[in-house]
Amino acid sequence: MPQPPYVLLFEEVAPGARPLTILVDARGAVPLFDSEEKVRAFMASTDFGAGLKPVEVSGAGLVRALESVRDEVDYVAINPPPAGEGLMKVRMGSLEELIEALQTSQQEQDLFGLGSNGSG
């Protein structure tokens, strides 16, 4: 499972904005990065345009972003390399499995009330 930070690409930075989706070997995927440096190298190698913005999101924000495109794509491309670097190997994961793992992780963190101001 990818570890924070979680960086996605958006055309606009606004509530409800949907992340960029790409095709990798004819499979729809959301590119997910663990640093802005990797995002910028990827963006510099593509012709997606200058309007894309890298945004670091929380685990909950990542879940919301992935859920917003679950009807369009089935995969997450983890740190896709810059285009044009010869034969590309892209680590892919199931979008649904990542959403489920993130939700389970968040529930486990709240298991002992750590996410709230419990009385004590």
How would you describe this structure to a colleague?
- There is one protein chain.
- With 120 residues, the chain is of the alpha+beta class.
- It has one domain (6-109): Trna Endonuclease, Chain: A, domain 1 (3-Layer(aba) Sandwich).
- Helix content is 28%, strand content 22%.
- α2 packs antiparallel against α3 (95-109).
- The longest helix has 15 residues, at 95-109.
- The protein is globular.
- The model is unreliable at 116-120 (pLDDT under 50).
Gist?
With 120 residues, the chain is of the alpha+beta class. It has three helices and six strands.
Overall number of structural domains: 1
CATH superfamily: Uncharacterised protein PF11572, DUF3234
CATH topology: Trna Endonuclease, Chain: A, domain 1
Quick one: how many beta strands? 6
Radius of gyration: 15 Å
Count of alpha/pi helices: 3
Straight-line N-to-C gap:
34 Å
Q: Note the beta-strand portion.
A: 15-25%
Topology overview:
Layout: E1 6-10, E2 22-24, E3 27-32, H1 36-44, E4 53-57, H2 59-68, E5 75-78, E6 91-94, H3 95-109
Parallel strand pairs: 3-5
Antiparallel strand pairs: 1-4, 2-3, 5-6
